[in-house]
Design brief:
Blueprint lengths: L4 E6 L2 H17 L9 E9 L4 H14 L6 E5 L4 E7 L6 E5 L2 H13 L10 E8 L3 E9 L7 H14 L22
Parallel strand pairs: 5-6
Antiparallel strand pairs: 1-4, 2-7, 3-4, 6-7
């Protein structure tokens, strides 16, 4: 299925810097599997019943709600200017595994260590680890180019609200508009 585009946006100055530093560190070590200092992550433990399918659907709804999370970052035009390409839809980068409590730390470390290919978004992924008990660990990893440390807790709060409402998006306030101020270039 070919994705249609919702928007193409210029990068903010911070995004330009993060993109440059990320691609520079990619080319220096030549290994997309090495640690990226611009990843942010959070993990939450849940005890008791959890509807993994509903949680995955809620994550998908969050990608619909916040278009910037669907972005890929690509070079465009003759000046090799980098832009954000926002498709109308993406598959949720979701991994659900069953593991023992002893395996959770290694699974989470791997999720936090893996780099994103910024040219093939989204730059956010989810790992849901199911353990006996029932116990769960949800790990969310994102590149700082799409979300910052202040916004990640807000994202998680919306995700929890959405899950508690059974996936009903009307339980959430209207999403904020993404505003980007760009000075004209000669």
């Amino acid at each position: 299925m070919t994705a249609t585009l919702e928007d193409v946006l210029a990068l903010s100055p911070l995004q330009q810097g993060l993109y440059s530093l990320t691609t520079l560190s990619d080319s220096e070590d030549g290994d997309l599997g090495s640690a990226d200092p611009y990843l942010i992550a959070m993990a939450a433990d849940v005890t008791g019943d959890l509807d993994a399918g509903l949680l995955r659907d809620c994550a998908a709804a969050m990608f619909e709600r916040h278009p910037n999370l669907r972005a890929s970052f690509v070079r465009a035009g003759s000046k090799s200017r980098v832009v954000q390409v926002i498709p109308t839809r993406v598959d949720v980068p979701w991994r659900h595994v069953t593991a023992s409590a002893d395996e959770v730390q290694a699974l989470e470390a791997d999720a936090r260590r893996r780099r994103f290919d910024l040219g093939n978004g989204p730059a956010m992924r989810f790992l849901l680890v199911e353990m006996p008990g029932p116990r769960w660990r949800l790990v969310i990893v994102a590149h700082h180019i799409v979300i910052d440390g202040w916004s990640l807790p807000l994202f998680v709060g919306e995700l929890i609200t959405l899950y508690r409402s059974g996936g009903d998006t009307s339980a959430l306030p209207a999403p904020p508009r993404l505003l980007i101020f760009i000075s004209p270039t000669p």
